[in-house]
Design brief:
Elements lengths: L1 H20 L22 H4 L9 E2 L5 E7 L19 E6 L5 E2 L4 E4 L2 E5 L11 E5 L12 E5 L11 E6 L5 E7 L8 E3 L9 E3 L31
Parallel strand pairs: 1-4, 7-8
Antiparallel strand pairs: 2-3, 2-11, 3-7, 5-6, 5-9, 9-10, 11-12
The protein binds calcium ion (2 copies).
Length: about 230
């Protein structure tokens, strides 16, 4: 009996030594050093997708139409600065992609000359009408289904007509069109509108008598009403 008692006490002693030498280690955190936030405790703002990044591809050839060209404002004050001058020139683009796209880095060429770049990585749903201004006055009121983009320079569109071309970030041609001599105070619009194969012709008067429809359907109705409007995001 005393023999078995000694064996039992020896087993207890060995077990105590084993536990004290091989305590439970904390789990390793691969790739995360002391004091650095891990994925679970990072700032949510830093994890949010960047506009124009995953889920929002850059616009590609055939996905954008130069739909309306205002090259000779002549009395129109598009940027809302109280004056009518060259800064009121504008383009209207229609996004005809099958998914959301951004236009960051898209370049405009006028008569073969590089004119400027579009900035901003905002993601636009298909069908959006994009009004491009060279002015930074920014008075153009945003409408549902539309967006306003600024070129890095004034548009400086020739009154007598020219070839307009939009190129993507990689240099690929997105759309190209030749506009004829611009009528005073009236834009030129694809006829039928939104069709990238249609010619640019003098804009008909809208229901309110305007000679342009920047950010609107060519009859002057809201952008959401033409071509089915932008798809919901
Ligand atoms: Ca103006
Ligand atoms: Ca229009």
């Amino acid at each position: 009996m005393q023999y078995f008692l000694r064996i039992w006490m020896l087993s207890l002693a060995l077990a105590a030594v084993s536990l004290s030498g091989c305590g439970v280690e904390p789990p390793l955190r691969w790739g995360v050093g002391a004091g650095q936030p891990g994925p679970a405790d990072a700032d949510p703002a830093q994890l949010a997708p960047t506009p124009g990044q995953p889920g929002c591809l850059p616009v590609l050839g055939g996905e954008l139409v130069i739909n309306e060209v205002l090259a000779r404002p002549a009395g129109l004050d598009i940027d809302g600065d109280g004056l009518s001058n060259q800064r009121d020139e504008a383009l209207e683009l229609r996004l005809i992609a099958d998914g959301p796209r951004h236009l960051d880095g898209v370049a405009l060429r006028v008569a073969g000359q590089q004119r400027g770049y579009l900035g901003g990585a905002a993601c636009h749903p298909p069908g959006t009408l994009l009004v491009v201004l060279g002015s930074t006055a920014g008075g153009w009121p945003p409408q549902p289904g539309t967006a306003q983009l600024h070129l890095s320079a004034q548009l400086a569109l020739r009154d007598e007509g020219a070839v307009l071309a939009l190129l993507g970030r990689g240099g690929g041609l997105l759309d190209q069109v030749t506009y004829p001599a611009a009528p005073a105070g009236r834009s030129l619009v694809r006829t039928p509108e939104g069709n990238r194969w249609a010619p640019l012709l003098p804009h008909p008067n809208t229901a309110t008598g305007a000679g342009h429809s920047l950010g609107l359907c060519s009859d002057g109705s809201a952008a959401l009403g033409c071509w089915g409007g932008p798809s919901p995001t």
